[in-house]
What we know:
alpha/beta, Glucose Oxidase, domain 1, 2 domains, 14 strands
Amino acid sequence: xxxxxxxxxxxxIERSRPTRQAYxxxxxxxxxxxxxxxxxxxxxxxxxxxxxxxxxxxxKTQAQAMNIGLVTAYNDMLxxxxxxxxxxxxxxxxxxxxxxxxxxxxxxxxxxDGVTQGYPGMELSLFSRDTIALSTxxxxxxxxxxxxxxLGICDKIVPGLLMGALRFGHLPMIxxxxxxxxxxxxxxxxxxxxxxxxxxxxxxxxxxxAEIQAYHTQGTCTFYGTANTNQMMMEVMGLHMPGAAFVxxxxxxxxxxTRAAVHRLATIGVHGDDYRPLGACVDEKAIVNAAVGLxxxxxxxxxxxxxxxxxxxxxxxxxxEDFDRLSAAVPLLARVYPNGSADVNGFESAGGMPYxxxxxxxxxYLHRDIMTVAGADLSAYAETPVIEGDALAWxxxxxxxxxxxxxxxxxxxxxxxxxRILQGNIGRACIKVSAVERERWVVEAPxxxxxxxxxxxxxxxxxxxxxxxxxxVRFQGPRANGMPELHKLTPPLGVLQNRGFKVALVTxxxxxxxxxxxxxxxxxxxxxxxxxxIGLIRDGDLIRVDAEAGTLEALVPADEWAAREPAPFPAPAxxxxxxxxxxxxxLADEAEKGASAVLAGAGL
Length: 604
């Protein structure tokens, strides 16, 4: 094992000892005293069976036949989740093939940051993760399931499903992906049209046509943002069937991987000889694997929120210092847009997750000895799924088929993972530099302070930002407004950088999982609401964002800085349902703990 990875793992195990033991005791109590079908009253069971009379006789055998709960994020407004439309009826057939049954236990919301970016609905985005966790708990609360399949893909959906499901960690569960859409307009071409539009050089019709050519059919978006980073993480944690992450929808291989997941669930229940409960699969080593995979592939910065939240739900404590130490040791093996020109289909064709996992295992960066849902250790995930005849099989992955996309661990794109923690008198923040040119890692420039990303866009359109500058956007944290992504800032800041200006962003909000070439100090904590130092910055203050040294400083005399009063908080916005989430904002804790209201409210 790489000594740095081993040291971080030991640090997490030691720090988590009391909370992890409490969690393991919880799921053992739940296993022993679970109000499952053998203990439910006849009227309770009749209610549960009434909706699926075709499976009633099998269900009446109770413990002898597993009943699988399907928790689905299906909707047909989002391409990634539209693929799940027929999954439940198919999965019921596949369950019957092995003497089991399946029922839709419940649905969870699935919203898309791509639809809500820059608009009021985006302020519900992060807390949709907590809503999904609560919805998952409700779905599994009936006590009529011996296992579950979690059908979800995108940004907050996978973390939310896991946060809820882990509180039922005595049950075996498998994540069921749907796969990415086939490639459309290349991501760099799409980004170029966005920047032309920001400069007034492309019409709205031209921009819409480019966006539709990029997002053109069912499946996840093809850039390597939060949704596809989720799928990577499920592979390195061993929670998918091996190699399931990036197989396109509507293919025979995709169908057979889902079928295999249903069959596998029927064999890993509490009454079988290969019991694999979710809470045992998601241990400290699996969480470290998720962080290593994130860094080795240049994944989404949103997972500096999501991985800590998933870990907390399993009694595990990981902090940004752990990510920073891992990033210094883990090599970058992949170049996928926005960190390269290829999309996830190109990544899959080059070798995909089986190649990455094999390389990281060979280099000692991933924990091989984790409990996976597939029945073996993580080595099974270093093989590629294929259809041989009519049957699903796995075969060795071989070498990279395109070293502009995937490289071996001995010849990485970079010796480190490209995530940094910045600290200084402004607070503690994260920065992703894997797509930022090295000469832009340090920006020292006067601040221009905003309380909303729309104000930034207006200032850009008015020509007020034509200079070296650190854009500060505050009151964007979880307690202020739900911590929306500030993705609308990417095109104008990119344009300013292209014009030769030194530009950086400092914010207590989030940036897109697809953020790229502009240096962005994000998730600044403590946030402005409540007195965080980002609220002390004034227009014209000299700000230094230094990813080389790991510092984030307002170059203001210490006595003047200490004497300043925080900026006043704008009144909370209403409309678009935002007022209904006041409880979530009030309870949410800091970004480094995952910015979760339900976990904080539960005392986790």
